[in-house]
Amino acid sequence: MTTQSSRRYCRKTKHMALKTPLKLGTRGSPLARIQTDMVNARLMDVFEELRAPGMIEVVVISTTGDQIADRPLADIGGKGLFCKEIETALFDGRIDAGVHSMKDMPTWLPDGLTIACMLERADPRDALISRKADSIKTLPEGAVVGTASLRRQAQILAKRPDLKVVNFRGSVGTRLTKLDAGEVDATLLARAGLDRLALPDVPQSVLSPEEMLPAVGQGVIGIECREQDEKLIALFGKIGHEPSSLEVTAERAMLDVLDGSCHTPIGAFATIGDGRLHLRGLVARADGSECFETERFGEPADAVSLGRDAGQELRDRGGADLFA
User: Fold this and answer.
1) Is a pLDDT exceeding 50 seen at residue 11?
2) Which of 116, 117, 127, 311 could pair covalently with 225 via S-S, beta carbons 3.0-4.6 A apart?
3) Residue 180 designated active-site
């Protein structure tokens, strides 16, 4: 998404002119359903017409990423598997929009689809979940850490090469159950998801971006539409949060240059403050033996060029074999 298209999403319309109920597609996990409820609430706050019963319909779609939970995502096609079936439903006309966690979105969208808007970013940080330690530093020697994220794996092993990292997938509830059963000594989850699920009793230690650089788009809910549905794009633009959109635009522009796949550990985090955009980026080897970091400062309107420039630097420094 470019800054030009971001501005386009914020065009105002006088009337919605919806002839049928608005159908929102979502994964069926508890977190995905909560995030879709958040979108519904924002829509009803802004559009009185959508408060009537039946005007918003939630369509639950089972994705390949949810169906196959016993193998690393990299082995079955990447994180885009959390989006593919929802995007198919968009093309088929079964839904009008798809609700996604932006960190689950692949680097490139299919032709004909676009991100109509993004909601305001929640806490973007990762949290260490463990009953044996309150930080990565204090984990017992040789402790087993469960994660399906190569980004998290690389950054953990860069700090603690003595730890053992194992593939660990499933919903938040499933992973917490496995943790309590002793399958691993610790795991990591996005703080935004924990907050949205209202899990205050989970033993968590929040990691700063300096300790663990987040995933691209972490903490942001995005709404995907067909490019031809200009009225819907304008409608969703009314509930979007422009600063969050620009932050993720910078992060995804960096990802685009890196040709990021699920085989390459990549982290990025952009913030806007005092009218300036600050972007930090990282690429690494999965074993944590090498990590390359960079940062950029600039105008929010230059989000794409800042992201692409950071991505090119990291690509040059990492070398071709890092992205093979």
Assistant:
1) no
2) 116
3) no
What is the pTM assigned to this prediction? 0.89
CATH class, 242-324 region: alpha beta
The DSSP line for 220-249 is: -EEEEEETT-HHHHHHHHTT--HHHHHHHH
Q: Which of 37, 45, 75, 104 is catalytic?
A: 104
Whether the domain at 126-207 and the domain at 242-324 fall into the same CATH topology: no
In the prediction, which pLDDT does 16 show?
53
219: left (phi over 0), alpha (psi -120 to 50) or beta: left
Kindly report the CATH number that applies to the domain delimited by 1-119+220-240: 3.40.190.10
* pLDDT top residue among 260 and 157: 157
The CATH architecture to which 126-207 belongs is: 3-Layer(aba) Sandwich (3.40)
The edge-to-edge listing of strands for the beta sheet with 97-101 is 56-60, 22-26, 97-101, 221-226, 113-118
